Amino acid sequence: MKDLSWDDGHVDITDPDVYVKGVPHRTFERLRNTDPVSWQDERDGSGFWAVTRYDDIVEVMKNTAVFSSAQGIRLEEMQPDELEARRTMMELDPPEHLSYRRLVQPAFLNRVVKTYEDELRALTVEVIEDLDERTEFDFVSDIARKLPMRMLGKLLGVPDEDGPRLVELGDALIGNSDEEYTSHPVDLVDTEDYRLLPFRSPHSAELFDYGERMAQARRACPGEDIVTRLLTPRDDGSLLTDEEFKNFFALLVAAGNDTTRYTMAAGLDALLDTPAEFSALQSDLDLMPTATDEMMRYGSVTMHFRRTATQDTQLGGREIKAGQKVVIWFISANFDERQFPDPYRFDVRRSPNAHAAFGRKSIHMCLGMHLARLEVRVLFEELLPRIREIHTVGSLERLRSNFISGIKHMPVHVTWA
């Protein structure tokens, strides 16, 4: 585990500036051990219950009747008109959630994702070879940022030349509290004019316009891509409204690139911190399946999701009132020593590894989890054999966010094999 001298075990887990330094593991460990369902006050909110133990988090995710997604999945509290304007399948409970999910789920089934491997491998080799054997580069900007969008673009039917701009727009949404990614960081400037747009971001409008143009093109000439799927009828025969389509498209662009990119960066960072594990994996790429899941666990890119109690209930010995926010911290669950022996040790052979990076035992399990696993595995399978030595040159830069744990920049020096 990295230096946590800045974390005295009592930091504010809602403060996005905290995560620029890293994940406050000492604070989450204290909460797991002494107050696993703890009340947290907020400067700009009503407060919430922080759920930090693995078993409690699984219970919350499974019980959608009591712990609802319909009032939002992040800490932000929205008015009814904001909720309706910005709703995606993530802010829906069963059965409505499944109606949305089934529109695109076929493209993300494991057996289907396996058919993408050859194309993904070719894209990965192309991205690596584009470095032209440069010895110094930014691993995030030059590799991890490019690859997921190239693959997602293939699935969406987006031309490669449009990918970089879509990445920028997705960054502005997911990184909506980071000044590098957005002109309107939500907690630093007034974003009231954009409250009806995803993530309260003015950049959503450009993403909406792009999605609308794609929809018009696919209505005129359907394809085999995900955008075409979004324009087909749902289970009840109804079509997505224009607003529903644009929100769904924005969600796919934002979530389909950023989380995988940050997992790749977290994976390399963990390998560089544990030379013995790096060497073991480089010597035996058959370890990549377990190593990939360990990268997912260790990185825990999506740090939390929120639920809202629909009725008075109990959890972890606490009395939770109807209407209160209940926030499940995956970043804590994935380091819970009750579930993971020696959790702060990065172990490429770790098995079993029932991490919660994609959620756990819930209809809200990450839609793209199989694709993310494939992308991470293939990247390191292609990258590690080409490297003789690699180390960072300069400091890592982390995303300013209490929602997404991300390394934005990782300058490295490489000696190629």
The total of helices stands at: 17
* Structural category: alpha+beta
- The count of β-strands is 12
Order of SSEs: HHEEHEHHHHEHHHHHHHHEEEEHHEEEE
Low-confidence stretches: none
C-alpha end-to-end distance: 29 Å
Strand composition percent: 5-15%
Radius of gyration: 21 Å
- State the shape: globular
Share of helical residues: 40-55%
- Biggest sheet features: 5 strands, mixed
Biggest β-sheet: strands ordered side by side in the sheet = 1-2-8-5-3
Global mean pLDDT:
96
Task: Explain what you see.
With 417 residues, this protein is α+β, with helices and mostly antiparallel strands. The protein contains 17 helices and twelve strands. Strands 1-2-8-5-3 form a five-stranded mixed beta sheet. The protein is globular, with a radius of gyration of 21 Å. It starts with 17 loop residues before the first helix and ends with a strand.
